[in-house]
Amino acid sequence: MRSYDLTERLLTELQRPDGPHALAPLNRRLYHVLRETILAGHLEAGTRLPSTRALACELALSRNTVMSAISQLVAEGYLSAQQGSGTYVSDTLPDQRPLTPPASAAKRAPAADNPRDLSDRGALLTRHSGSQDYEVQPFAPGALDFADFPIQLWQKLQTKYWRSLDRNLLDYGQEGGYMPLREAIARYLTLSRSVRVTPAQVLITTGTQQAIDLAARLLTDHGDEAWIENPSYWGARRALEAAGLRLRPIAVDAEGIAPREAEWHTRPRLIYVTPSHQYPLGHVMSLQRRRALLEFAAQRRCWIFEDDYDSEFRYSGRPFASLQGLDAHAQVLYSGTFSKAMYPGIRLGYLVVPPDLLAAFNTGLYDLYRPGQLMLQAALTDFITEGHLQTMVRRLRVTYQARRDALARSLVQALGARVRISGQDSGLHLCLVFTDDAVDDEAVAAACAAHRLFVRPLSRYYLGAPHQRGLVIGYAYVPIERITPWARRLGEVVRAAVDAANGAAAA
Ligand SMILES: Cc1ncc(COP(=O)(O)O)c(C=O)c1O
């Protein structure tokens, strides 16, 4: 096969929407297509492949994508790389079985070839880690400070229930969780978040991640379309991808999710949004946008998943009511979490479900995940009803606000017009958006990491090409006595990296 024919074939196969690997990441798709081309005998042993640079250019892929596919094939023995002279199809192929699987087996091709291979879905879900890079480090978004968490009180409340010898609390949590906790949450949501809710509608989950997973599994089918904000929370993306949804990234502006004209004509089955504090940019969805989204969902008969993950921490302006509270058609599922106000390892959150979905969601929650932890739920109920949660959140709000102020001040001083700060009115992180969007935020984040200052590049939160570049910076973890010197250092490192990038571009 000539290289022209090879590129033609690769392009055609890569673009097939119904191919067995259509949902896999590009490097995996290229790997499969090349491997199948070799095994089908279209490329003879000894054939020299075009260079990775040429292939990347002809296939309009990044060189990294091509190199990743090629090196996998070299590692598996399909290709051999000869230093300085190129990459060749091997004389002895590792697997000579005919590649075209029977139609029914086509989808399972990779697992059948190598049972230890990840499935395409597995590869897609684990292609890079969303959080593990640096979860609990200075300035890492999501890292919290537990220094003042009232451990003894928390322990006392839990011990009380273990001492009570109430063996019912050892069971699975039937019917959506511990009822007194559901009542306490319903009260809080009605008063503070204008959610329209009865206790029966509140299901206790192991956090937002499970709530998204449950909603996606019960309300959508494999291959359905879901809208997701772009940029967006990687955890939500993973859960929706795991449910086999086709994600349509929808841009975000200062008023929240901002579908383009053509997108208003599509038919998503589910829309995932963070209206109170867009993650990660931090915008609050405007009333006008909320109304438009609700009207759209009513017309298209699709579901909205509202992730209200950090609205306990609002520092200025009035808190916005929930989207669910505005909804006249019972089409919004509202989710909250105790990961921020308590601690992430508690793995407790809640999902407010429209009344007509309740029976199905109760069954789904019970049968799919086998919930439990009733002792913990009982202790949390007391923590809430005795007023400890409110006191703690009030105190943390003051603490975190002081840290945010110190961070923002230092960053503005160091960086001036190089950046715009977004989303600092609430939550536990802010977003530093570079005015010059040619600056490589991965490189800037790497420069910060070299100084043990861990921030995340904004571009990593985008699905596809990033619209903006910058840094997502958490401030909850850094103690107040450290935040000013560390934030100054962060500002200096970012300034040097941005100026170096600008200098290099100008040269
Ligand atoms: C947008 C968003 N939603 C939800 C969560 C919390 O998820 P969970 O309740 O599963 O801990 C986070 C955590 O950082 C988040 O950033």
UniProtKB/TrEMBL annotation:
Domain HTH gntR-type per the UniProt entry, residue ranges: 24-92
Pfam family, one: GntR
Highest taxon above the source species: Bacteria
SMART domains in the record: HTH_GNTR (SM00345)
Keyword Coiled coil carried by entry: no
Keywords: Aminotransferase, DNA-binding, Pyridoxal phosphate, Transcription, Transcription regulation, Transferase
Annotated spans, Disordered: 89-122
Biased composition (Low complexity): 102-113
Listed GO MF terms: DNA binding; DNA-binding transcription factor activity; pyridoxal phosphate binding; transaminase activity
Family annotation (PANTHER family): HTH-TYPE TRANSCRIPTIONAL REGULATORY PROTEIN GABR
Record-stated family: In the C-terminal section; belongs to the class-I pyridoxal-phosphate-dependent aminotransferase family.
Full protein name: GntR family transcriptional regulator/MocR family aminotransferase
Species assigned in the record: Extensimonas vulgaris
